[in-house]
Amino acid sequence: MNRILPPLNALRAFEAAGRLGSFKEAAAELHVTHGAVSQQVRVLEEWLGAPLFERHNRRVVLTPAARTYLAEIGPLFEQLAQSTARYGLSAAVFRTLAVNAPATFVLRWLVPRLGRFRSAHPDVEVRVETSNEPVEALKDSYDIVIRGGPDTFYGYSMRSFLAEERVPVCSPALLERMPLRVPEDLARHTLLHTSSLPRVWPDWLAQANIPLLRPAAVLTFDHFYLTLQAAVDGMGIAMGPTALVADDLAAGRLVMPFALPRLPSRSYCTYIPDAKLGDELVVLFRAWLEREGMG
């Protein structure tokens, strides 16, 4: 006989939220984001065809029917945990680590290295969400937030793990077509800008003692990763952060026409909620980031 079962991830999110009376506390217990719990609860509500919570601004209350449902399924989760433990599989074996980081950092630095962490820790699921919002403005809770720094935020522990500077970079094919021997040669090229970083090129040109240089053209993108991709594609010259273009330089996708000057830039830092500082998985991932940053 076929069993008709609800989506189990959604059921797990509902059980935790109902038992704790809070989506936020459920997210912390399940090591996911507040938004993930809310989404799973909506999935279960749609599957059941009935609401489970009454939502009142920042708090949620079980409906009478959902309270009865929770009383029936709650013991089943406890029984499942006990049965699993008897077979030597602790419920803590599989963990999810919620990480929030800027998109360009994720694409250019974290993703190429994340496979090494997964290979060493196959029992850990790393869930990465991208954002440039300030740490204190994030609506959901995360185990680790990666941002520039060093900065100080109440309730967070900060540590730097990856230093960087900014230098001009371009594709080797572009350099072959139009060599750059001295910084003044930039006047014949297209300079690639990012709208959120308007001072990067002017500051570098000032350090190179050519503050009034006018390039042949300017191309501006709204996301920094698009600017770097345009440089890889030979569309112009970008100001590349050394940490985020290191792999492209090593692979020959980008070259650095001038070794100097180098613009100082903010380091990448981990910001960990104080409540997570004792979490072994969070400490493990932070230590891995620091080792990768030193390498």
Describe the structure in your own words.
This is Transcriptional regulator LysR family. Residues 6-63 form the HTH lysR-type domain. Belongs to the LysR transcriptional regulatory family. InterPro entries: LysR-type_TF_proteobact-type (IPR058163), LysR_HTH_N (IPR000847), LysR_subst-bd (IPR005119), WH-like_DNA-bd_sf (IPR036388), WH_DNA-bd_sf (IPR036390). The protein is of the alpha/beta class. It folds into 3 domains: 8-86, Arc Repressor Mutant, subunit A (Orthogonal Bundle), CATH 1.10.10; 95-159 and 270-294, Periplasmic binding protein-like II (D-Maltodextrin-Binding Protein, domain 2), CATH 3.40.190.10; 165-264, Periplasmic binding protein-like II (D-Maltodextrin-Binding Protein, domain 2, 3-Layer(aba) Sandwich), CATH 3.40.190. Helix content is 42%, strand content 22%. Strands 4-3-5-12-6 form a 5-stranded mixed beta sheet, with helices on one face. It has a 5-stranded mixed beta sheet with strand order 9-8-10-7-11. A two-stranded antiparallel sheet has the order 1-2. The longest helix is centred in the N-terminal third of the chain and has 23 residues, at 64-86. The N and C termini lie far apart (56 Å). The mean pLDDT is 89.
